[in-house]
């Protein structure tokens, strides 16, 4: 799976599965998933190389305006996902737009 395909899979899970805030991890099917949970759920399926995982996470961080915060990773993405008023549509759009940073 390429980084572009990985981002698309993450976006699809958030868009068509169960999205949530304030809950870190789930599978998006039976339990809700946040941005970080969606990233992990797709990665855990084993079709993404570690380097492509890193590239994709950095692209998402760049898209949310935190390109220099990779060392904080999921905590930055989690805070962004959990921001008051954040919508599923906004999260999906951000993930899909992150491909421009690859």
Fold topology:
Blueprint: H1 3-16, H2 35-44, H3 50-63, H4 73-81, H5 88-97
Kindly list the characteristics that best describe this protein:
globular, 102 residues, mainly alpha
Count of separate DSSP helical elements: 5
Low-confidence stretches: none
Which of globular, elongated, flat, extended, rod-shaped describes the shape? globular
Biggest sheet architecture: none
Based on DSSP secondary structure assignment, what is the total number of beta strands? 0
Q: What is the averaged pLDDT score?
A: 90
The helix/strand order is: HHHHH
Helix content: 55-70%
Cα-atom Rg, whole angstroms? 12 Å
Query: How much of the residues is beta strand, in percent?
Result: under 5%
Total of domains: 1
Termini separation (Å)? 14 Å
Structural class: mainly alpha
Protein architecture, described:
This protein is 56% helix and 0% strand. It is an all-alpha fold and 102 residues long. It has one domain (3-101). α1 packs across α3. The model has no long low-confidence stretch (mean pLDDT 90).
